[in-house]
Specification:
CATH architecture of the largest domain in chain B: 3-Layer(aba) Sandwich
Helix content of chain B: 25-40%
Number of domains of chain B: 3
Radius of gyration of chain B: 24 Å
Structural class of chain A: alpha+beta
CATH class of the largest domain in chain A: Alpha Beta
Distance between the termini of chain B: 69 Å
CATH topology of the largest domain in chain B: Rossmann fold
CATH superfamily of the largest domain in chain A: ACT domain
Strand content of chain A: 35-45%
Order of helices and strands of chain A: EHEEHEEHEEHEEE
Oligomer: heterodimer
Number of strands of chain B: 21
Radius of gyration of chain A: 22 Å
Distance between the termini of chain A: 48 Å
Number of domains of chain A: 2
Largest sheet of chain A: 5 strands, antiparallel
Chain lengths: ~180, ~550
């Protein structure tokens, strides 16, 4: 089955431990995640989480439905890769000296990466972009010595105006059914 | 009204309709217990021998009544001792609220005496849990806990209360409990389609799980099966929902279900699965489960759809409401040929053989039913006796069979039986069926039965071994009985006496008839030991991963 990268968005009540409920659930259910990022929203009571996974449709469905069961989860939605903005931030520190510095600058210029630190023996680049762009940039650095690296993981939102996603079904008062004690 | 956190605690319990709770005191909950002392006329607190017993008691109370069970324990070991009980309730979707004390907020995170992060420990085994960080949040957090426990798919909720929260004061505003809520919406078109599939089926089968009981959907389900003569089979959790006397009830499905039920599932062309999660004890081989059938699934929890078995049509919502909607679309049918096939399978099914010289489990259970009558409530531990109870008890009450299904918790029975007895009152007949293995885990609760005069009759199927494990070792491990034959020398009659209750020892049916009649008459906590053969098996059996083709009858 197709195992493309899938991006899931979550709106979460900003309660203590809410994020650990998400990560704990993934661990317990044996779901492998590529990345998880979390951030504040315009509402201080709500946190936004973006999760990416590589798995088939059945697992994706379970990931979304099991996540939706958590009390702290307000909504869960799948981000369509065609219709969403997905960005990641990379910081990479390379061993660099007089001999290779200009070659590195050239690669950085092509990818529009910024040089944000420079010493006689190292350089630090900052790059923001789609994960595929980050991957391509890193591939270009393969012949060099990477001293340290961090990627933030994907953060994403849909294009266009705000949409309300499939919220959980609202629970209402249960009508009294006919007695069923035998 | 300014009240301490402990007074607020007691007030909210009363407000939520709690009349009985279970627990065990300790340092971090001293203030809470001090408040409960003053609320004794409104709330009966039953102190068990061990917090695990209290958790199982709250669970048994909830299963016997449908009301939310309540348990209270102190911080640290008190809290961790609840874990098995909470996990048991979680796996079987039982509404429960567990309260734990914790060290004061200034001591949290310092590895203080009896400090444990119980919210973290119980995250994967609760619907939700809370740490109350300030007394101002206490009342509403408790109310929210009770609401969540009963809402939608039911389950346990834990509320952790630091000690300073129990002594601090805050303004208390009384409130009314929220009546039970559920998902009332569902897809009308799908409901009509489900009925259409059932109407066109030649070999329809209803497959029901514990969700039917939780949603109070038994009435609608019965009406459907009777209207169109649709046979039904059930999971362990749904024993009693349809009743033994219902001719369309084929009985238990799965690993220790009958040939008939498993064959019917194998041959059915449309299966209506209600409130069941297709566990691996029922859908032993998910790829071949109901392989000729189109499966319709009704469940309140959308995550149960296609989790274990792929279904063809799913209806998300409350089973009672959806079944009521399906009912008018169902056309009367006879299904004569299908019912005749089923009748033929019944005649070649496994039937246990009676013996006069030794105690046979099915005969003991038959005798229990005959004497205890239709109003009795049965509670089990886990193992062979549990399966025999599921197979041979004449289940007639929807809430008459209390057993740990999903987690399979040995040691569940005694606490749960005490909880059921406390819920149903002293006059009720509560019979606990256990094995010598399970019983040794938590038999300490005998002291609770005696202290509170809870007249649970405990029938111990003593085969001297861990029978279920032994059965697997016999079948699949070349009879290497690794650590299942402990040669215990327990004298149950003496031990019962030591606890202050009556013990009986039986080796044949006549002795058992007499002992059980005596125990029923005395209506006091009692133990009845039944000596059975160590190689008695639970039959039939389908090995893990198998199908009805692999069913073993000997």
């Amino acid at each position: 089955m197709a195992q493309e990268r899938k991006t899931i968005g979550l709106m979460l009540k900003n309660n203590p431990g809410a994020l650990s409920r998400i990560s704990g659930l993934f661990c317990r259910r044996n779901f492998n995640i590529d990345s998880i990022t979390s951030s504040a929203t315009t509402d201080p009571a709500v946190t936004r989480v973006t999760i990416t996974i590589h798995d088939d449709e059945a697992v994706l469905r379970q990931v979304m439905l099991q996540t939706a069961r958590l009390e702290d989860v307000i909504e869960v939605f799948l981000l369509d890769p065609e219709n969403s903005l997905q960005r990641e931030l990379l910081l990479v520190k390379l061993a660099a000296n007089v001999s290779n510095r200009s070659a590195l600058r050239e690669i950085a210029a092509i990818y529009k990466a910024k040089i944000i630190d420079l010493t006689p023996e190292s350089m630090v680049f900052e790059l923001t972009g789609r994960p595929s762009k980050i991957d391509a940039f890193l591939a270009m650095l393969e012949g060099y010595t990477i001293l340290e690296m961090c990627r933030t993981g994907i953060t994403a939102m849909e294009r266009g105006p705000v949409r309300v996603h499939n919220r959980k079904p609202v629970e209402t008062l249960k009508p009294e059914p006919e007695l069923c004690e035998n | 009204m300014m009240l301490t956190g402990s007074e607020i605690f007691a007030e909210v319990l009363v407000e939520q309709g709690v009349t009985t709770m279970f627990g065990y005191p300790g340092g971090a909950v001293l203030n809470l217990y001090d408040a409960l002392y003053r609320y004794q006329d409104k709330i009966t607190h039953i102190m068990t021998a061990h917090e695990q017993g209290a958790a199982h008691a709250a669970d048994g109370y909830a299963r016997a009544t449908g009301k939310t069970g309540v348990v209270l324990a102190t911080s640290g070991p008190g809290a961790t001792n609840l874990v098995t009980g909470i996990a048991t309730a979680y796996m079987d979707s039982v509404p429960m609220v567990a309260f734990t004390g914790n060290v004061g907020t200034s001591l949290i995170g310092k590895d203080s005496f009896q400090e444990v992060y119980i919210a973290g420990i119980t995250m994967p085994i609760t619907k939700h849990n809370f740490v109350v960080r300030h007394v101002s949040e206490l009342a509403d957090t408790m109310r929210e806990a009770f609401r969540i426990a009963q809402a939608g798919r039911k389950g346990p909720v834990l509320v952790d209360i630091p000690k300073d929260v129990t002594s601090d004061k805050w303004e208390f505003t009384p409130a009314q409990p929220v009546p039970e809520t559920t998902v009332t919406s569902f897809d009308q078109e799908k409901a009509a389609l489900a009925a259409q599939w059932l109407n066109h089926a030649q070999r329809p089968l209803v497959f029901l799980g514990g969700g039917v009981r939780s949603s109070k959907g038994c009435h609608a389900l019965k009406a459907i099966i009777r209207k169109a003569n649709i046979p039904a089979t059930h999971t362990l959790m749904a024993a009693g929902v349809l009743g033994y006397e219902e001719p369309l009830n084929l009985g238990l499905l799965g690993m220790h279900g009958s040939y008939t039920t498993n064959k019917a599932m194998d041959e059915a062309d449309v299966v209506l699965a209600v409130g069941t999660r297709f566990s691996d004890r029922v859908a032993l081989n998910t790829a071949k489960f109901a392989k000729k059938a189109r499966i319709i699934q009704i469940d309140i929890d959308p995550s149960e759809v296609n989790k274990n078995v792929e279904v063809d049509l799913s209806l998300i919502g409350d089973a009672a409401i959806i079944l009521e909607a399906i009912l008018p679309h169902i056309q009367p049918a006879a299904h004569e040929e299908w019912l005749r096939d089923i009748q033929a399978w019944k005649s070649i099914d496994y039937h246990p053989v009676n013996h006069n010289d030794r105690l046979m489990p099915h005969q003991v259970i038959g005798e229990i039913c005959a004497q205890a009558g239709p109003d009795a409530v049965y509670v089990t531990d886990v193992g062979q006796h549990q399966m025999w109870a599921a197979q041979y008890l004449r289940h007639v009450k929807s809430r008459g069979f209390i057993t740990s299904g999903g987690l399979g918790t040995m040691g569940f029975g005694y606490g749960a039986a005490l909880g059921a007895q406390a819920a149903l009152g002293r006059d009720a007949t509560v019979v606990m069926l256990t094995g010598d293995g399970s019983f040794h885990m938590n038999l300490n609760e005998a002291c609770t039965a005696v202290s509170y005069d809870l007249p649970v009759i405990t029938v111990i199927f003593n085969n001297q071994v861990l029978g279920m494990v032994r059965q697997w070792q016999t079948a699949f491990y070349g009879k290497r009985y690794s650590s299942t034959d402990p040669h215990r020398k327990t004298d149950y009659v003496q031990l019962a006496k030591g606890f202050g209750l009556k013990g009986y020892h039986c080796e044949n049916l006549g002795q058992f008839q007499e002992a059980f009649a005596q125990a029923l008459k005395e209506h006091k906590p009692a133990w009845i030991e039944c000596v059975i053969d160590k190689d008695e098996k639970v039959l039939p059996m389908i090995p893990a991963g198998g199908t009805v083709e692999d069913l073993m009858m000997s």
